[in-house]
Amino acid sequence: MKAMTLSANGGPDVFVLRDTPEPEIKPDQILVKVQAVALNPIDCKIRKTGAFGYGSGAILGFDVAGSVEQVGSLVHNFQPGDAVFYCPDFSGPGANAQYHAVRADIVAKKPAHLGYVEAAAVPLTALTAWASLIEQGDLRLGQTVLIIGASGGVGSMAVQLAHAAGAYVFAVCSAANAGLVRSLGADRVIDRQSEDFAAVVQKEAGTVDLVFDCFGDIYTSRSIPIVKPMGRIITIVDPKGDLSLGYRHNIAIHYVSLAFDSIPRRIDGMKKITALLEREILKPVVHNVLPLEKLADAHRALEAGGGFGKIVLTVSH
Ligand SMILES: NC(=O)c1ccc[n+]([C@@H]2O[C@H](COP(=O)([O-])OP(=O)(O)OC[C@H]3O[C@@H](n4cnc5c(N)ncnc54)[C@H](OP(=O)(O)O)[C@@H]3O)[C@@H](O)[C@H]2O)c1
Prior knowledge:
The chain is of the alpha/beta class. The protein has ten helices and 15 strands.
């Protein structure tokens, strides 16, 4: 099969299109004929650093949609031809290839109204937003949430989930993406370049119940004064700055990591996300579609920033 492999860890030009053997499946796995793979910042971090052990020869790509080609002897809930989507973990090869082997229990059937490109744009970011806002963040009807990095892959899912949960949504992003973030359900979009997000929240709401930080840097520490006592801050990126005020304000600060999530939570998360997609409460946000052979260009575009939603690679057979 054709696959985009790493020749080394480094810049976007390290990808090489190679003929590699098709994966052999284990009894609890399915073989997927890959149709579309979405790009995530974690792919860029792994490409650069070799994180999780992905070095020369490795295949990345961790947001997948395709059709079932073959099922393992212990798999009873899929059959060849089923259209599926999933987020594989970082313990094996990714799916920047024509075929991918994956444990069947973390795979969900693709909602019929979505194409492969749209379906691939969802799992990793939606699972992260679900685990952060709903499971760890316990966001409830009528609460107020502040989402930082609201136009990104995770943020665009989080805005939709928070809106659907009945929360009032403050969303921080660049002015260029403000209209799109508003269209996803944000009540008040804060322009990160011309407004002080903490001052806006303080003036308009006083405090929020929950902050979801999808950017990191100083946003988590700067958010502490605008969170209610006993409120929560969830971050998915390493925060910088002094977090000690959080103790004195009785605020819980959590780091959510999909990489270390449990399999039962991953399975449950995919069920919830599939149901939300089927009811069109959650919608994929696709920024750009490129053929898999243009993977280096896709990495460059993601690293340049400025986009809204996902970059998706299509795989030809
Ligand atoms: N822990 C986990 O399990 C987990 C899971 C998924 C992702 N992540 C991490 O979470 C981060 C976000 O992921 P993603 O997929 O949403 O990334 P993304 O699609 O690249 O989005 C990042 C967003 O950050 C915004 N941004 C850029 N510069 C900014 C600045 N100076 N201040 C505030 N916002 C800025 C950009 O929007 P605007 O220009 O419109 O502001 C952009 O849309 C990444 O670092 C990723 O690796 C962690």
